[in-house]
């Protein structure tokens, strides 16, 4: 599945911290604006249905299924499960520095996806076969909010592939090895990583 994601170009003199701050502000704005568009895919009755009743475990099961569908394992490349993308996403969601709207958007998207699959197919996303999952994700991607939600999930997949293993993804540098990347030094430890107390 190919999803477009607009990017912000950065000049060499643009400070990294300012660039990241602008991206986070832009993302936060887009997430707030997009919320209604994805909800519009659902009939009014469905919007308050399954999404509010999902357990935390079920939300993570659906996110795992979405990640593995978007980034499957192949003989010559690791997939979402291989890079422990779900563990990395758990780290991100627990991070107090994550924008509250983004955390909410990630989980609301799961609820919207579950509502849509129940409405369209009569089963939850994890119970669908590969073709049905593809059809549902393409339907979600047809709205601006849905495309933003899937782009957010893909962003964290890429981060899991590239981040230092100390953050929960990329075990033993599997993503780095696949890409032929040599990480910089010093690498973070559990005590010096971002978010360590």
Mean pLDDT score, rounded?
79
- Specify the number of helices: 9
Main sheet makeup: none
In N-to-C order, the SSE pattern is HHHHHHHHH
| Count of discrete domains | 1
Number of strands: 0
Class from helix and strand fractions:
mainly alpha
Residue runs with pLDDT of under 50 for 5 or more positions: 1-17, 23-51
Spatial shape: globular
Distance between the termini: 38 Å
Strand content: under 5%
Query: Level of helix content?
Result: 55-70%
Describe this structure in words.
- The protein is an all-alpha fold.
- It has one domain.
- The protein is 58% helix and 0% strand.
- The protein is built from nine helices and no strands.
- The chain has helices spanning 16-39, 44-47, 50-53, 56-70, 85-94, 100-120, 130-141, 144-162, 174-179.
- α1 (16-39) packs across α8 (144-162), α5 crosses α8 (144-162) and α7 (130-141) packs across α8.
- It starts with 15 loop residues before the first helix and ends in an 18-residue tail after the last helix.
- 28% of the residues are buried.
- Mean pLDDT is 79; it is low at 1-17 and 23-51.
Features:
197 residues, mainly alpha, 9 helices, 0% strand, globular
Strands, helices and their partners?
Layout: H1 16-39, H2 44-47, H3 50-53, H4 56-70, H5 85-94, H6 100-120, H7 130-141, H8 144-162, H9 174-179
Helix pairs in contact: 1-6, 1-8, 5-8, 7-8
């Amino acid at each position: 599945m190919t999803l477009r994601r607009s990017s912000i170009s950065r000049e060499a003199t643009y400070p990294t911290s300012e660039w990241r701050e602008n991206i986070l502000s832009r993302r936060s704005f887009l997430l707030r604006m997009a919320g209604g568009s994805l909800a519009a895919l659902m009939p009014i009755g469905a919007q308050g249905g399954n999404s509010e009743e999902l357990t935390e475990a079920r939300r993570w099961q659906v996110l795992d299924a979405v990640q593995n569908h978007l980034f499957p394992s192949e003989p010559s490349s690791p997939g979402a499960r291989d890079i422990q993308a779900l563990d990395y996403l758990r780290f991100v969601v627990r991070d107090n520095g994550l924008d509250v709207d983004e955390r909410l958007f990630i989980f609301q998207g799961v609820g919207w996806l579950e509502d849509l699959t129940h409405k369209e197919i009569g089963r939850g996303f994890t119970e669908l076969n590969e073709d049905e999952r593809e059809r549902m994700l393409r339907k979600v991607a047809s709205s601006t909010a849905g495309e933003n939600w899937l782009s957010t999930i893909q962003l964290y997949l890429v981060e899991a592939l590239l981040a230092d293993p100390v953050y929960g993804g990329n075990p033993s540098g599997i993503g780095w090895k696949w890409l032929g990347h040599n990480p910089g030094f010093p690498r973070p430890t559990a005590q010096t990583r971002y978010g360590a107390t």
